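Apologies for my clumsy wording, but could you write out the amino acids of a protein and the C-alpha cells describing how it folds?
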Amino acid sequence: MQKKIFLHGLFAGIFTAVACIVYIRVYFFAFEISFKKLVNIGSVSGLRMLACMLAAIGYWLSKKWFGKKADIFFNITFTLLSFASIIVPISITLPLDLQNPEMFPGLAVPMHFFPAMGWYTLKPFFLKESE
C-alpha cells in the first residue's frame, strides 16, 4: 500500500509538472506575456512534485489515522489547502519593471489547483476503493 501511494504521488507530480509547463507555454502564446523572472520551469516543476509527494504523505497518514473515512478527510483537506494556497500569487508584490503585472494571477492561480487535479485524476490507476 505504501508503495502504491508513493508511486501515485510521484506520477501525479510528473503529470502536474508537465501540465504546468504546457499551461505556461499556452499562456505565453495566448497573451504574449512572459513571467520568466518570477515563474521558471524548474521551480514550477519542483513545487508541483513537492506538492504531490506531500499529498502522498498526507494520504498515507490519513489512511493510517482515519481508516475508512480517510478519503473524505484527505480530499476535503487537499482541496481546502489548494484554495488557501492561491492567496500567495494574489497577494504578491511584483517588480515595477514587469510588463502587465495584472496578468500574473491568471498564470499562477490555476497552477495551484493542478496537484489536486492530478492526484484525483490518477487515483483510479493506483488506488482502488477497496484498499
